[in-house]
Amino acid sequence: MRKLAAILFFILSTFVVAGSFQMRIYTESGPGAGLFPMISGVMLGLLSAIWFFQEQRLVTTSMGGLSIAKGALIRVGLQLLALSAFATLLEPVGYLASAAVLAVMTALIAGERNWISIAVLAAAASFGVSYLFSSLGTTI
Amino acid sequence: MFEALGTGLLHAAEPQNLLWALWGCILGNLVGVLPGLGSAGAIAILVPITAVLPPVPGLIMLCAIFYGSNYGGTISTVLLNIPGEASSAITAMDGHPMAMEGRAGAALSVAAIGSFIGGVCGTLALAFGAPVLAQIGLLMGPVERFAMMIFALALITGLLGDRMVIGLVMAALGLLVGTIGIDPTLGIPRFTFGSVDLLDGVNFVAAVMGLFGISEILLNTEQRLTGKIADNVGRILPTRGELRQSWGPIWRGTGIGMLLGMIPGATSVVASFLSYSTETAVSKTPERFGKGAIEGVAGPETANNAFANSNFIPLFALGIPGTASLAILAGGMMMNGLTPGPFLFRDNPDVVWTVIASMFVGNVMLLALNVPLISVWVQLLRIRYSLLAPIIAVLTLVGSYALTENAAIVWVTIVFGVLGYFFRKLDMPIAPMVLTMIVGPGIESNLRRSLQASNGDFAVLFQSHIAVVLFLASIVLIVWSVWRTAHKHGEQRVLEMRESD
């Protein structure tokens, strides 16, 4: 899996270097907007290549640290769904409802089954956090 | 200097500043105690709360959260055997066996006393060392500053040992993330893909909230975080014998932590591990270590906190954050309109001296919060993670939204959270990326200023003696690190061949 990450970083670096040339490396007034991204991109590309060959020399039998059990994968996926739901709902339905949804979903995913606790949590996460931020002078 | 520190103490003692320091200490201790949230994650999540305060109370609170989380981390390490921080891992070796023997109270008290002494000495080093270093920093031009930042990067990645190449990859990635947005000199958008939200660049705080906060939630969700708490804390205060045994380790830990804290790139893990190995080396009964030796708690915990406070020296004096937590703290300072670096002491002396003075006050507060109230903190450990996770998730995303009151920034946090999750799963160090995200724009502006002055001639970088020394030191460090890694791999291969024979 790390080898794949190294390849992805290498692809990213080629994209960055190509993009930096479009921004111009040098102008009449001195270094252009593309100079620093170009240097960083070249660095990233070279290092990704070294990293790839380093990984190539290692004998790995697993997925290089990314082995996840099916149940855990579902939980992580659901947690991501809960976080994305919050970001999507935040502006159309408002903070209180979206925070309550996020709190309930996260509690359930984390294994909480006591509905009274979940209700208290949802209230604390929505009204409590809203109160905390408004008392500090930020409206959410 | 004494006068400035005295004035700072007077400001720090103002009721409003005391209150925010206390809140910071309580919050820091709280997030440190609760398992499943490291110091960097805690600071990242709480930065938006401090951003709405005026600069001085905001910064006082942020610093208090930082060192408070270091204090609190020990409690979950000793009682649950779950180190909140990598630097606390060594404490678990003797701290948890002590807890299992019913001596958790003594372990935690000695850790709090050691942390207090280490923290105060570290702050003294900061008060006397940082202004001197800042004076030197003021004499530096863009070339020297550029060279110094490169040296700091070499230190940060060179000390990663086996993972140096991945560390450098992550550092390069951080540099690239730092270039997203409008070019500060020419006003050209870079890597924004036509998005208006990216014109101002990737919001640093939102990104680190994802990298540390969201990724931690995802990891804990995957692993279903649980732990068995040691039920019997025992007597709170250590016995006279235990105190006698702890004095030596506390003072040695203070020295080790203070010295290492001054080096950008050295980590608190190195400080606590070095302290532990020193204690095992000087002990007449090293066989007790790993089985509940109080010296194994006193030394590393002291070193850890002395390191945390003296690590502010490179940040305040040179603008170089030594660790990921301090990089996030630097981001918080910038949100409050303060740029860490040599100009901080010149342009905002009242702010910086008040903050330094507040660290003395904060350490006293933490001692008072930790020793008598240990049993209260212990009760917090009984809260199930399934009840904490929703609060952490909501606070992270709401905090992110509060930064700009724009839903797009929430997506930035989530995207960086997913990236952070994969980085951590693949054992890729996030700290170099966070550090270069914060120092990257500084590196670029100093490089461009140097090249502009020389009409694009790169030779200008080698015309300053200081810069040449720093570049050479960076090369030596990287080469030494590569050689050391290769040597280690060679030895391993020889061993493997012998075993197979």
UniProtKB/TrEMBL annotation, chain B:
Pfam families: TctA. The chain crosses the membrane at residues 20-38, 45-67, 105-130, 136-157, 164-182, 202-219, 312-331, 351-373, 385-402, 408-423, 459-483. Keywords: Membrane, Transmembrane, Transmembrane helix. Signal peptide: none annotated. Residues 18-435 form the DUF112 domain. This is Putative tricarboxylic transport membrane protein.
